[in-house]
Amino acid sequence: MAQLFEDTVLKFPVLIGDIGGTNARFAILTGPHADPKEFPIVQTADFATIDDAIQTSILDRTSLRPMSAVLAVAGPVEGDEIRLTNCPWVVRPKTFFGELGFSELIVLNDFEAQALAVVALGEPHMEKIGGGTGEALASRVVLGPGTGLGVAGLVHAVHTWIPVPGEGGHMDIGPRTERDYAVWPHIEQIEGRVSGEQLLSGRGLVNLYRAIARTDGKEAVLTTPAEVTAHALDKSDAIAVEAVEMFVTALGRTAGDLALVFMSKGGVFLTGGIAQKIIPALKTGAFRRAFEDKAPHSHLLSTMPVYVITHPLAALAGLAAFARTPALFGVETHGRSWSA
């Protein structure tokens, strides 16, 4: 795998971008040893296309002229029209050359970038949520509730860290407790099913809040994830408190499932703004109980550490590490790399 990437050398300056359903974050890396020059966060809803956003928010505001770009997008990377799952933007790589002036473009899945960040960032940017000590070269898994639910694995082989992207956020998630069975029928479905994203995302938290209110015949007065989180943490709304508790438990169950899939003895890493905001709720014990409740492998799960990545621009840190030294990472670029 490492042999495939020895000839991958990006031309500096390199534009790096982490593009989610709601926000897009960009920076320019001027050289292999330089710190990224960061730009203000872009709201995807403010621009009709990604091309407009890059031109207006980046290129028009700096004299730096990026030669290459490495973008991480929230959705599967396929073909010459890459559609984001929770955003109307479409990445058309060939327009980057004529209209924006780039000579090279690599497009990755956004959680590949988050997986790379696990290697690029150190302990100062992580908050531990129980478990033992992770094995240095063991497999890892990254998941993050945000606009959607992102999932990626990270495995080490032939002296190389290899990110494993996927769409694990769309796995089914079902009820477990008697209370779950009462609430689940009121959760908004997509074509008859409840996926991880329908619970473990910003809108998922609101879905849970509304479903609990309907179950108990009460009025759902809160309408945004931020409101639900705030009222839960200060315990001013009983429905919000239960919604966050159910969210944390479901996140623990899902994280534990993925830890078993990847045998994540190197750790499980939670990323994104929601995880950072609910660290106090994650530390109450409900998350770890759900994470470890995996008989007959409960003891195995109890040894696996879980971390919340607290760096505000973790994906950009991962992309910067890749842009500096692509050969150190087993990132498959076939079909995801374009040049002028």
UniProtKB/TrEMBL annotation:
> From the UniProt record, which GO molecular function terms apply?
ATP binding; D-glucose binding; glucokinase activity
Subcellular location(s) of the protein: Cytoplasm
Alphabetical GO biological process terms: glycolytic process
Per the record, its GO cellular-component terms are: cytosol
Return the SUPFAM superfamilies for the record.
Actin-like ATPase domain
What keywords tag this UniProt record? ATP-binding, Cytoplasm, Glycolysis, Kinase, Nucleotide-binding, Transferase
- Give the EC number(s) listed in the UniProt record: 2.7.1.2
Q: Does the keyword Disulfide bond apply?
A: no
Instruction: Extract the InterPro entries matched here.
Output: ATPase_NBD (IPR043129), Bacterial_glucokinase (IPR050201), Glucokinase (IPR003836)
| Positions of ATP binding | 17-22
Catalytically driven reaction(s)? D-glucose + ATP = D-glucose 6-phosphate + ADP + H(+)
Task: List, alphabetically, the HAMAP family matched.
Answer: Glucokinase (MF_00524)
PANTHER family for the chain: GLUCOKINASE
Give the family per the record. Answer: Belongs to the bacterial glucokinase family.
Name by which UniProt lists this protein: Glucokinase
Q: Which organism is it from?
A: Tianweitania populi
